[in-house]
Amino acid sequence: MSKKILTLLFALILLILPSTLFAITAEEIVKSMDALATYDTSYSTGSIQTTDRFGTKESTFKAWTKGTSESLIEFTSTAERGQKILRTKGSLYLYYPDAEELIRLQGAALRQSVLGSDLSYEDMTEEKTTLNDYTVTLDGSEVYNGHDCYILTLTAKTRQVAYPIQKVWVDKETYVTWKGEYSTSQGRLLKNMEVLSVMQVADRTIPKETKIDDAMKQDSSTMMTFDTLQINVSLDANLFSLENLTW
Amino acid sequence: MVNIKRLGVLLGMVLISTTLWAAENPVITMQLLSYYTYMPASDAYSDYMLPSLSLSIASPRSGNVRGEVVLKTPYTSLTSGSATTIVNDILNKAYFKARFPSFRLTAGKTRLSWGDGILFNAGDVLYGSSDTSVSLTQAELRSETGWMTSINYPMGFFSFAEAVILPSIDTHASHMGAGFRYYTNVGNTKVEAGYLTSYETERLHKPYVAMQGNIGPDWYMASSLSIPQSGDIATETKESWLISGGLYHLQDLGNDKTLSLRLEFLTRPFGNWELTSQSDSDCALLLYPEIVYTPSSSLSWSLRSIISPLDLSCNITAGVSWSVFEGFTAVGYLSSPFGDSSDLFSWNAATSAVSLVIGASWIF
């Protein structure tokens, strides 16, 4: 009898073991999400479309990144042609060709809106280290638009973030964040984010079209679209320099 | 003087023709502003409309040579200026840049921004950013351009040296100007130092230093001297000493609402510190507070003022800017000076006016 019980217990442990030994943690999911958006180097072109009840405004850009802390964005649309943003560790340099002016920003100024969109300079060029700013819990799973997703809740550790609470739906296979709900610390919904389409780049699934709706305003949204994205490309060593920024 | 200006105009024409040949799509900025003014001194009302146009023709942003020509409508020179002054005003920019392996050459009419400061910048030894005769209705408060040849020499990723040669303002080669600056980061602080010698009514030597950093808000400071070559050098140098500085902070109010706060000052340590009426040339202390509230991505409210604390006068401009459509922005401003008749800003001086400005700009 006791042998049967032992055998039964052993079989039960064997059944349970894989799900406990190999269960992914919330932190590991977030690290995988960050890793998906972090490249050794990248070059992309795309657009930011801001829509309100008066219509749509579009700004187009070219962007280069290196690691988590160096990025350069050059705007190519008519109204902002030649304006550039260089992000380095701790500083942001803006170059306005009309005034031939080089402006260095630090601190809270990094949270300025870029070209009147719902995105800040920090959003566009941020270092992808989510766990530095947020604690995370795994709330469960759900199939969203045909994608099997983890549901995570991220709660801000500091006040220096735009959204104190983020609830995100993360693809279990590709770690694409298909959906996000961004709220105040009191739980009031501010923004809805949805990835509308993805593209395959070097064995990674990357968001191609991302739509951010303002939950507080009707008919207000921002669409960020990548037309091209190349990752781990060879970049000029001089790319992330003031010399190149002001050229 | 005329020959030099003719040469400049000729160079401008050459640059226009070469740039047009290789240009990308030109960018046109149109602005139409309606002014409604009340002049307390004469108890008179007036209204007028001021259209302005800017045409920018730039070469493609690729390759090792670039150029741009910007033509603007002239106003100040149309009524009183000579033909060459008018052409010089119309030709706002006309330059090319060439990128060599170890340095960059810029030649033509353009702008160099030295020092730090939106309104007050003691480090701006090239054009001067210390006077109060600016329109607070413009997004860009200082935008003067000039003829020059400059060389930019990179010294690492975030440091460079820059040298500039300014043509003579007349036919005398000895009246040319020249200068240089060095720009680098020391720890988390940007440090810039330079020197310019130029001939205005006399030969002046202008050393300056400028710094920028962050202590919660971003801060910046600059200081310069204007040392004459002859005359009472010690006194004039003392009186020319300028120190400017500023603090800038952007407060996130949540849900895309932001409040930006800026406070700049300009001081002349050996200026007129008496609590009497001040003048632009020797005013000992000036302040520039600026508050911009942005309740949404397309709308902003602003309150800007230049304050002269020693004679308790000021100029206040309240404004609203609404980016309605792509490239199309509606603007409105209400501006008024406050102060006694002899103060720096005066309510009832002959040219003082309370102005309401309504208009729009379109860039395409």
Which runs of chain B of at least 5 residues are low in confidence (pLDDT < 50)?
1-5
Q: Please state the structural category of chain B.
A: mainly beta
The sequence of SSEs of chain B as H and E is HEEEHHEEEEEEEEEHEEEEEEE
What is the number of strand segments of chain B?
A: 19
Oligomer: heterodimer
Strand content of chain B: over 45%
Describe the largest sheet of chain A: 13 strands, antiparallel
CATH homologous superfamily of chain A? Lipoprotein localisation LolA/LolB/LppX
Strand order of the largest sheet of chain A: 6-5-4-3-2-1-13-12-11-10-9-8-7
Shape of chain B: globular
List the total number of helices of chain A: 5
First-residue to last-residue Cα separation of chain B: 37 Å
Helix content of chain B: 10-25%
Q: Major β-sheet of chain B, in short?
A: 18 strands, antiparallel, barrel
Annotated CATH topology of chain A: outer membrane lipoprotein receptor (LolB), chain A
Give your account of this protein's structure:
The complex is a heterodimer of chains A (247) and B (364). Chain A is an alpha+beta fold. Chain A has a single domain, classed as outer membrane lipoprotein receptor (LolB), chain A. In chain A, 18% of the residues lie in helices and 47% in strands. Chain A contains 5 helices and 13 strands. Chain A has helices at residues 2-21, 26-36, 121-125, 130-133, 242-245, and strands at residues 41-52, 55-66, 70-75, 84-88, 91-96, 101-105, 134-144, 147-156, 165-171, 177-183, 189-201, 204-214, 221-231. In chain A, strands 6-5-4-3-2-1-13-12-11-10-9-8-7 form a 13-stranded antiparallel β-sheet. In chain A, a hairpin with a 4-residue loop joins strand 5 (91-96) and strand 6 (101-105). Chain A is globular, with a radius of gyration of 21 Å. In chain B, helix 1 runs parallel beside helix 3. Chain B has 4 helices and 19 strands. In chain B, a hairpin with a 5-residue loop joins strand 6 and strand 7. Chain B is globular and about 55 Å long. Chain B has a domain at 111-245. Chain B has an 18-stranded antiparallel beta barrel. Chain B has helices at residues 2-21, 76-80, 83-90, 233-240; strands spanning 27-39, 44-58, 65-72, 91-99, 104-110, 146-154, 160-166, 177-186, 189-199, 203-214, 218-224, 227-228, 242-254, 257-267, 285-296, 299-308, 313-325, 328-338, 354-363. Chain B has 364 residues and is mainly β. Mean pLDDT of chain B is 89; it is low at 1-5. Chain B starts with a helix and ends with a strand. Chains A and B meet through strand 2 and strand 6 of A and strand 10, strand 13 and strand 17 of B.
